[in-house]
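Same chain as my last thread, 363 residues:
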Amino acid sequence: MRSLAEKTLREMGSMFPRLERFCSAQISLTQMKNIQPLAIGPDGRVRVGKRDLAFRRIGQPITDLSDGRLKSAGWGAYRAKTGRNQPGSREFLMLRNNWWRTLLTPEPGKVLLYCDWSSQEIGIAAFLSGDKNMAADYEGDEDFYLAFAKSARLVPPDATKKSHKQYRDKVLKAVCLGTLYGQQKYSMAARIKRPVAEAGDLLLLHAQRYSTFWRWSSDTIDTAFLRNQIETPLGWQMEVGDVRSGADIAAPGDTRVTTLQNWPMQATGADILRVAATAVAKAGLRLSFPLHDALLIECAECEAEDVSRVAVDLMVRASEVVLGRPIPVDVDVIRYGQNLRDGRGDPLWNVVRQALGREAQVA
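reply #2:
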């Protein structure tokens, strides 16, 4: 679980672009103090969830195990209330700051397939709630966030992801995702760096366009409170105590309203991930790891197209099993000599490479 200080730094970096590199660097420095437990086997692979695995410390020769210790790095399976895995950031590279994942690269002759469901949480919300407008905007040819904006006349009819990238990524996406966990106009205004009145208007437009979703979300909270539990389509349950708002004083066993609002999307996403991971493993594909709404699969370069097609089919079918409707899957192919990158981590990765005496720019 992330500390309050790390959460605050991430929020500040998101809200104030000038602070983004500073916040990212500060988080990384804190994480690097705890770098030693990273489990790296003799083959150069990071292991998570393998018991009794000999590993080396960063900066030591692979054969140097002079302390004689064997390390166990756990996946934290089902640790979250939503049924998701919760591995520690010390053990799982992908949970560290964004630039860390750039260290992941395939072996010669291999590729990594990063397969993730497209806007999965939006799709789950649309299909669970039965909101026809949300489902139509999600399944349509138009980008979901721009479809919402055009229906609300926030952007011109010919707007595209390229022409309105900043507004889409920083405002529209924040509003549409924030509504899934009940974000209010004050915190929304701070997040999108707009006046409170404008944030309130955006939330109202969302409620008008997707009224069925808003009613379903409210009914979900009421039902969970009355039954003292909430459940996913596949039966994963969470006990619900006294429901309280974020401003109320916490008591043991209490459940936040925002937790109940977001729980169906997160827990159903976990259902889909488990079904997909099981299917991928049974199909004989080499699953490197699951990550929230994605799977990383390794295969020979010559098999990349076939493996990608099988993986996408299995992942889409997994969403159909759970929801009765398909959620599309996007695939990013990382070849030998390339790295698994997140654009948000590129600036700090360049700084790290400079410090290591390597090229200054990401290839």
